[in-house]
Amino acid sequence: MHQERQSTSAISLRPREVGCRVPLTTAALRGWKFYSDVPVISTRTSCASVGCRGTLDVNLLRTCIRTVVRRHEALRTRIIALDGSPLQYIDEDGDVQLCVVEAEGGTGEALDRKIQLLATELMKQKVDLSVGPLFAARLLRFSAREHVLICALAPVISDATSVDILFQEIWTLYDQGARGLPFSLPPVLLQFGDYAVWEQKSYAAWRATHEAYWKSRLTGAPALRLPGGSAWKGSEGIDSEVACFSFGTLLGDRLQEVAKRERVLLPLVLCTIYVAVTFRWCAQDESVLWFVSNGRYSPELRGTIGFLVNVLNLRISMQPDDTFLSLLRRLKQEFYLALKHHDCNRVFDIVPELLSEPTDLIFNWLPSCGDGWSPLLNKGQATEAGLRVEQRTFHRTLSAGFRLAFLSVDAEICVSVAYLSEQFPLQVVERFVQNLRLFAEKFAQNPATRIGRYE
């Protein structure tokens, strides 16, 4: 145990040396390899918009965006190939232009469709990763007092949490500037490039310590298959639809009480419910589960923009006499074992079949995680200068069969489902979520009841 702690802590996560080469992270490199053309062409699929009601100072907004770009290296990054290997190249001054587009107004669903259309156009623009920019911003002006800001980033340098950080910092600075105050934000302790360098330097020590565990735990583990089609593979050129559901605050409070009694995180309680429902739907009792989080385990990374999403591979089984509690406790044990042998997405190098035949059992937790397609619900926020920042929405161009994300907003449990209706009709999606809610209610009411009693 002492040797293990020593080997994994020998290379600490800290700012990199000036002038050193900055590689891609393991996850970003894997994405890079999906492309075969040179130069590599990508799109900016990490995209979100936020509505602004009131008098907007466009020049101040431009200044705020430029300030945030200067704070975060990822927003000034391009990907270049050197001796056949991709590297991050950070420009000294990111050339991000805020393009203002005059747009026709509208209300309700018509306005939402218009924003989605314009956001999709921005997302689908082809960008050469070696030329950039990988970050783009567009301001839609519907009237003198109604605007929508859309920001889009290439996935190789961002994730959903990055978009959240981006908007939070932009509007914090805007409020300060509108009130005549100097800009003031907490320092960025670690940049995305710092993390990438640490990951590369620590790889050999990590593999020497943890490879045996992951091989023995995951080699030959079955992958779950959904009955209607793959959760991953959709139809080319067809975007998934998104349906959002709420479990309400009362049920959220009761599930949080279960989590406190069992001394576990709320996401593990929700994951237990998701596993139980999905196993019964698929008539399967064992699988690898991908537990997706935002990867910012270190406090120094919580304010970092970059592609830090992390997958924990958990091998989960459900026994015929399992209760909610027994399944939760087994999941808890597996979760903390995986954290102990934390892989930073590197376990896929050890057990490649996890990627060649990926599981359909995927648990996404928002806002702790996400992959840029799911709505992030939040309250409207009014600045002291009188501008009201409305609900933020993540946009997506995802062609996946069936993907879920769970989130908690003010104790309200919400579920977002991206699906292709030709594979999974809306009625199937609604029935699945109804079962999630039923199991959640039964779990909260009597955690010691056998799961097999519920249909």
What would your notes on this structure say?
With 455 residues, this protein is of the alpha+beta class. It folds into 2 domains: 2-178, Chloramphenicol acetyltransferase-like domain (Chloramphenicol Acetyltransferase), CATH 3.30.559; 210-375 and 396-453, Nonribosomal peptide synthetase, condensation domain (Chloramphenicol Acetyltransferase). It is built from 12 helices and 17 strands. The protein has helices spanning 2-9, 26-32, 58-71, 108-124, 160-178, 192-218, 248-262, 266-282, 324-340, 347-350, 353-356, 426-445, and strands at residues 22-23, 41-42, 46-53, 77-82, 85-90, 98-102, 127-128, 135-143, 146-153, 241-247, 286-293, 310-317, 362-366, 381-382, 388-395, 402-409, 412-419. The chain has a 6-stranded mixed β-sheet. Strand 4 (77-82) and strand 5 (85-90) form a beta hairpin. Helix 7 (248-262) packs across helix 12 (426-445) and helix 8 (266-282) crosses helix 9 (324-340). The longest helix is centred in the middle third of the chain and has 27 residues, at 192-218. It is globular. The two termini are 45 Å apart. The model is unreliable at 1-8 and 368-380 (pLDDT under 50).
